[in-house]
Amino acid sequence: MAKSKAASTKTGQTKHPSIIPAKSPQTATSPDRGDQSGNTLRRSKRLQGMPVPTFNPELPVTIQAMPSKTMLSEPGLPFVKVVPDGAVSLSDSGPTLIGATDSDETLGDHAFEETQSSSTKPDISTKPVLNEPDIDTFSEYNGTDNENSDNSDAEQNNDEGNSCPSKKPSRSKQDNLGAALVKSKKRKAATSGGKKTAKTALAPPPKKKQKVNAPTPKRQRKAGNPKTKTAKERFLAASAEDTRPLPWGEPEVWAETRPELCEALPWFRCWQGAGHTHGGFVFGMLLDEDQGERAYMDEHVAITRAGGGIGKNDLGEICQIKDHDSENGRIKAFINNEKEKIPMHLIIGQNNIHCPSRIPHRYCVTPDVHITDHWDEKSNGHVVVKFRFEKTDLNKKSWYAAEGSPEFHVPTNIKALRKECPKCNVTKPQVFMSGWMCLNGKCVSFWTLNDILAPEAQDYNPAFVEERQTFDGFIPPYAMNPELIQPNATHGQAFPATRQCWEGIVCKLCGRCNLRRHWDAWRCRTEGCPFVHKLPMDVIPASSVMGEAGYGFQGHGVAQDKVLEPSINCEVRKHGLYRECVYQLGDGLIITHLNSNNVINSAPGGPDDLFCHLQKEDIGLERLPMKQSVVEQTYSRHFSHNFGMPYKYVVGHDNSTSLADAPDGIKEAVRRMTWAAKRTVADEDFVDFNEVLAIGYFESMKMNVRALFRPPIYVCYHLANRSQYHDDGEISLGPTVASISLGCPARMKWRLKMRYWCGFKDKGRKHYDPNQPILRGCRKPEERRKLNELAKTVSTAELDAAAQVALAFDKGESKTPPAVLELDLRHGDYMVMHGAPMQVYYEHMVTPTDKLRFGLTCRYVKPEMVPEDMRSMGDLTLDPANAYDGDLELYKDHMEKYEAGKVTKRRIASVATQA
Fold first, then answer.
1. H helices, E strands: number in the chain
2. Could you report the per-residue pLDDT of 626-679, keeping only the tens digit for each?
3. How far apart are alpha carbons 255 and 471 in whole angstroms?
4. Which pLDDT score is estimated for 708?
5. CA 745 from centre of chain
6. Better-predicted residue by pLDDT, 731 or 76
7. How far is CA 706 from CA 15, 314, 374, 498, 847, in A?
8. Is 127 exposed, middle or buried (CB count within 10 Å of its CB: 0-12, 13-18, 19+)?
9. Are 634 and 707 in contact, with CB atoms under 8 Å apart?
């Protein structure tokens, strides 16, 4: 023992109480959990220099100050206890307080000498205890980073000096806490004279070197580049490299994609970010890749930071760049849950490197947890808010506990020290081993020990991590596994088309979260799982979804369109019972709106029958994955199916049905839309349609280019409604587009595209383009005409400077192009767009206003733009004898009845007058 003390003194060790793990010689350390930026921790070689005697649990041993590499003893093993004189002693019964000390001294510099492992019983006087050093606790040292060290090396290094002869404990608890104690900021080793030494001053960080395997420029990138992998490929690759033990059980609820998770769980509608908050409370949180410095997780406890304030530093590394504010609404929501004892749910992502076991799916839900503590700490020079979560039911083993781990026994004699700060009067626990300090970021004593600023490198106090608190709060507001959606009488006949009926569900056989992809039912996407959930879908009459329009018009309809640009010309005429409005947006740019009425709609084979036909017959409607979306695997917010020539818009239709094989209702719609188009386009300019896109909308659905979400009851989506403007400007399309609206009303708007509205080439509006046409509805047309004349005599730079002044936005003026035309599309109405420049200059959007709507749109797809073997899919021969004429015979009959009614009214009036 004297020799050990002398060795410590020789190396210049400062006395400080810490905790040494009671480890078994058979214990192997699991792979490092990594830092909180998502990078894997590099395992360092054992440092040399300080021989420290091991202990025997049967003997009373006193050990001087040790490196702050703290791990906990397993049940059945002796605890390590800190005593006031700064020594470490052992106790079979366990300590009543771990990590509480009156000493606030920081650890000094240490040098270690590497020793060889031995299978023989160690000699207490000579055999040192080699624990992996906490790199940030000490000054810089010389060493080698072994980024790819294998398990055998790790096992050998961690077995050295372990003398406790008890049975092999579980690795999960010790390894996880050990990983949390290693700081994410790792310092590079410096070599001096071939010896491993310690320096008291920190060297400046080395300049970031260019990586040898850096990705090639985008145009040179090869197909096999990792950045081009899909989410599933990245998940499988990461799973293959994960060496953690398998989980003890299986999650009750899980998902493979973020959209599935967010659509199926009402308590987690967070499409981006980690926490779902609403109304001042938090209901769910995702623990995935970035959880901040000192993140920790075991079977019952998780420690993570609040969201926000993350960015890249000068080296391109993701780290904390802004302070957290505890008054922030999202952070306040977590604090409110803690104060009011409201439990919540956690989701473990596959990128979570702190979980004690491998994650079987991309996202897995944990049992209910509650927030026990929150505090502020320092990270990268900034104030960060941290939270400690703990399971509400400690008696039930967590599914994510490591396979083979022992049963957990709730400790009753471990409590962390809690003190009130004399400066701010806020009580906080002792979170770190260095001693109690005020962890209120707004206090003048924040992050100080004995009025001296504490280092950012800190170890967790094991008592704070290991203590367990009996939860006596409320039942979680939402069930972890929601019930299946069932018919609701309050919604009446239209319930199957309500917003609730296209949210996701959790499979009751395998537990997977599933979004509703198919029109007729929910189907579990797990391979081999037969689960299907269907709702009785009775045919909904058009009258029940027409909203304020009621039963429609009996005579000629009154168009409630809005011409928002005065320069747009409008011509109104009639054809039979249709009211026809023709809008001229420019030379050759025409939009026609044909208003239907109740007489036309209710005729045999008319819009009413088409509406019922599309509900009864399975025409293959489904939600398809978006080609471009912020969140991978996001699906469209509408159901669709393509007939005829292949057509790819915002989603890809890889499985089109030929027009010859299309249902009769689709063919009838083509016949009617052909008539409507010919009302707008001259016969010599019209080309028969060869493609039909059928789109079905439930309540709150939209034709979307980006992922859209509306706030359902009690929860709030992360993304609000955004602009849904788009165009049909694919080069493979002809100049004419026709559509028929069936079901609830919809609003269709047109606006100029940004560059044609404002006159600038770029989004930053710095470079004026004098070659752009000055269109109806563009901004400041007179100023642009003057600029176009000026462009003939000045340089480009002078023109841009003049445009910045002439086209400057006034204070409060909107920088978004306004709508120039808005149509009120009702059940049975037709819309026709004609003119190729229409899709170049303008974009449009359609927004249904009620529960159920179908939109059928016809186009002409150029055959030369389609593979030769698919060109026959657009073949459809319409019998001229059965061509639709606008129900002219129906118009004659209606007029005869109308005239007869007027004669009858005159006779009645005449008899009344004579009387």
1. 15, 35
2. 776 667 778 888 899 999 988 766 455 567 899 999 999 999 999 999 999 999
3. 28
4. 36
5. 32
6. 731
7. 60, 32, 36, 21, 14
8. buried
9. yes
Band (235; pLDDT cuts 50, 70, 90)? low
CATH code linked to domain 248-403+467-531: 2.30.280.10
> How far is 127 from 122, CA to CA, in rounded Å?
6
Tokens for 891? 């118009």
Alpha-carbon distances of 783 from 568, 662, 676, 813, 898, rounded to whole Å: 20, 53, 39, 17, 55
The SS3 call for residue 368 is coil
DSSP structure class, residue 63? B
Delimit the domains of the chain by residue range.
1-196, 248-403+467-531, 584-753+819-878, 759-806
Residue 760's alpha-carbon distances to 286, 567, 778, 805, 855, in angstroms, are: 42, 22, 12, 13, 35
Q: Quick check: 170 pLDDT over 70?
A: no
Q: Is 130:43 a contact under the CB 8 Å cutoff?
A: no
pLDDT tens for each residue of 497-555: 888 888 899 999 999 999 999 998 999 999 999 999 998 888 888 888 876 655 578 88
Chain centroid to CA 662: how far?
A: 38
* Architecture label for domain 584-753+819-878: Sandwich (2.60)
Strands 369-379 and 382-391: antiparallel
What residue type is 787 in one-letter code? Answer: L
Q: Six-digit token pair at 601?
A: 């709609």
Higher pLDDT, 546 or 179: 546
User: Which of these, 319, 296, 317, lies nearest to 309 by C-alpha position?
Assistant: 319
Three-class DSSP labels, 2-23: HHHHHHHHHCCCCCCCCCCCCC
DSSP tag of 108: -
Question: pLDDT at position 909, please?
Answer: 59
Of the candidates 234, 288, 287, 297, the one whose C-alpha atom is nearest the C-alpha of residue 30 is 297
Q: What is the pLDDT of residue 899?
A: 76
Encode pLDDT of 108-142 as tens digits: 333 333 333 333 333 433 333 333 333 333 233 33
Length of the chain: 915
d(CA 539, CA 612): 6
| The domains spanning 248-403+467-531 and 584-753+819-878 adopt the same CATH topology | no
Q: Name the token pair of 766.
A: 């710095």
Distances (CA, A) of 283 to 170, 476, 713, 799: 32, 8, 14, 55
Per-residue model confidence (pLDDT) at position 889 = 86
8 Å CB contact between 356 and 298:
yes
Q: What is the pLDDT of residue 684?
A: 82
Tell me how far apart the alpha carbons of residues 747 and 829 are, in angstroms, rounded to a whole number.
Answer: 12
Q: Are strands 281-287 and 345-349 parallel, antiparallel or unpaired?
A: parallel
Tell me if the pTM is above 0.70. Answer: no
Per the model's pLDDT, the better-predicted residue between 477 and 64 turns out to be 477
User: How many beta carbons lie within 10 A of that of residue 769, not counting itself?
Assistant: 18
Q: In angstroms, rounded to a whole number, what is the distance separating the alpha carbons of residues 489 and 495?
A: 8
The answer to whether 547 and 567 have CB atoms below 8 angstroms apart is no
Residue owning tokens 């972890």 = 480
What is the rounded distance in angstroms from the CA atom of residue 831 to the CA atom of residue 742? 12
For residues 151 and 245, the answer to whether their CB atoms sit within 8 Å is: no
Centre a 10 Å sphere on the Cβ of residue 262 and count the other Cβ atoms it contains. 28
